[in-house]
């Protein structure tokens, strides 16, 4: 008799062999190989799944990034890396005590740049200039192309006014102020580029006007636009007497008489620099000097670009303070030649020629242009040859305390808050004033159809300057001498 399950048995009454039922041996636990790979963790499983079956050979598979900028090369990537470790710090005068600013500059702006080529070109352009400043090799053709493409893309974005690019427009309006300083350091730089650079700074306010303040605050970049508060009444007490007399002596019938109030208000902002300098060299002084043009009345910018003598005298004195700045590298080389360029419009500087009414007013700027030590420069500005700077070190507790005063301020220097619209921190019936022009109503969220909506008086001229810069030109430097009122 065959053993159970053998093939020798037959079913009674049939000729068919009998097969006993056996339990199946297939597991319901799934594929053994897959279980083996999964049991050692996701990373090990991924390696096992991507490893070649050929002995002694491994094939590593790399995932493609979700996004990479088009047409990037090794130079682009090197510059982007250098920006994130070094150049970003050029825009944070108080980097050691403001990690929030670092986060904006290193992370948030880069995120916007990956989606907007003109902002990426702006970042690469300023980094190229920084590396050149440090003596590191950068192809000059690339540096020029970055600048030109940054300005061209920026202008196009303004004209299109696509809300998707608004955060990038805000960031670019600030960074382009530094990018454009390359013109000052060019060997063949056009004289009086300072008159164009003034307008570049005004672009910050124009962009905020275009995109609306609520977009700025939603973008998370509002801290980049903090400024030092200004007490204009106290600052008026520090205006040099000769500059004050230059304005108060105007009489009815003089060409500049209708603008007496404009000149006097501008001198108050200049007085704030003299007042700050009395306290010594500090981070807050640097910031006051750098942001000075963002406060000024719109009418004064027009007068300066028309080369009105009194406006040029004030610009020359501000350039003296630029020589005192110990701040970012991109502020270097701005004032050295431009002080004399401005003064030469008013006075020949030749001791053998008779003096004119402007000679005494440019005496201080001419003296400063021949000095190198900023303590000596400060002595000339303060007209005090026994002055010594107080022992206030940058980063010291006293300096840090002053830096903490930075806030959103209007163009009268008073602190404001944004609550659907700008209001003063200290309640008052007055509304904050911005000299760039009236902001659109922040409560209105209608779509912006064209960038020309920013066109207050400065808008068209600003766009014209941006267009000229996109061709890597030095801009207009204001009206030509033939169209300007000469001294």
TrEMBL record:
GO terms for molecular function: DNA-binding transcription activator activity, RNA polymerase II-specific. Residues 1-52, 466-487 are annotated as: Disordered. Transmembrane segments: none annotated. This is C6 zinc finger domain protein. Residues 19-29 have a biased composition (Basic residues). PANTHER family: STEROL UPTAKE CONTROL PROTEIN 2. Residues 469-487 have a biased composition (Low complexity). InterPro entries: Sterol_Uptake_Regulator.
């Amino acid at each position: 008799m065959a053993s159970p399950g053998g093939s020798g048995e037959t079913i009674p009454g049939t000729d068919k062999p009998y097969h006993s039922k056996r339990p199946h041996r297939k597991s319901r636990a799934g594929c053994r190989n897959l279980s083996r790979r999964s049991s050692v963790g996701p990373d090990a499983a991924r390696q096992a799944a991507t490893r070649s079956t050929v002995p002694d050979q491994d094939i590593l598979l790399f995932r493609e990034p979700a996004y990479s900028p088009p047409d990037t090369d090794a130079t682009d990537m090197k510059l982007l890396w250098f920006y994130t470790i070094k150049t970003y710090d050029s825009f944070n005068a108080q980097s050691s005590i403001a990690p929030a600013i670092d986060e904006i500059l290193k992370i948030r702006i880069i995120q916007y740049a990956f989606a907007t080529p003109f902002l990426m070109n702006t970042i690469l352009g300023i980094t190229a200039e920084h590396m050149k400043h440090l003596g590191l090799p950068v192809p000059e053709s690339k540096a020029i192309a970055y600048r030109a493409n940054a300005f061209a893309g920026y202008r196009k974005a303004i004209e299109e006014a696509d809300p998707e690019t608004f955060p990038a427009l805000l960031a670019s309006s600030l960074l382009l102020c530094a990018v454009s300083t390359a013109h000052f350091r060019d060997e063949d730089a056009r004289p009086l580029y300072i008159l164009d650079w003034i307008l570049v700074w005004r672009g910050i306010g124009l962009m905020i006007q275009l995109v609306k303040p609520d977009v700025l605050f939603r973008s998370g970049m509002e801290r980049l636009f903090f400024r030092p508060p200004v007490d204009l009444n106290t600052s008026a007490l520090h205006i040099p007497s000769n500059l004050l007399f230059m304005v108060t002596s105007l009489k009815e019938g003089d060409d500049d008489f209708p603008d007496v109030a404009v000149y006097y208000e501008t001198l108050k902002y200049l007085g704030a620099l003299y007042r700050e300098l009395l306290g010594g060299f500090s981070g807050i002084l640097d910031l006051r000097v750098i942001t000075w043009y963002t406060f000024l009345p719109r009418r004064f910018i027009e007068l300066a670009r028309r080369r009105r003598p009194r406006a040029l005298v004030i610009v020359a004195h501000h350039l003296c303070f630029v020589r005192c700045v110990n701040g970012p590298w991109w502020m270097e080389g701005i004032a050295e030649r431009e002080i004399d360029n401005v003064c030469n419009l008013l006075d020949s500087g030749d001791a053998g020629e008779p003096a004119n009414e402007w000679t005494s007013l440019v005496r201080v700027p001419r003296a400063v242009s021949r000095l190198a030590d900023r303590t000596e420069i400060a002595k000339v500005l303060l007209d005090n040859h026994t002055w010594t700077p107080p022992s206030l070190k940058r980063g010291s507790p006293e300096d840090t305390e002053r830096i903490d005063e930075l806030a959103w301020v209007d163009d009268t220097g008073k602190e404001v808050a944004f609550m659907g619209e700008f209001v003063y921190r200290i309640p008052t019936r007055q509304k904050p004033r911005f000299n760039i022009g009236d902001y659109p109503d922040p409560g209105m969220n209608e779509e912006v159809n064209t960038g020309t909506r920013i066109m207050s008086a400065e808008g068209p001229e600003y766009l014209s300057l941006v267009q000229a810069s996109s061709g890597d030109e030095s801009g207009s430097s204001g009206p030509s001498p033939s169209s300007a009122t000469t001294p």
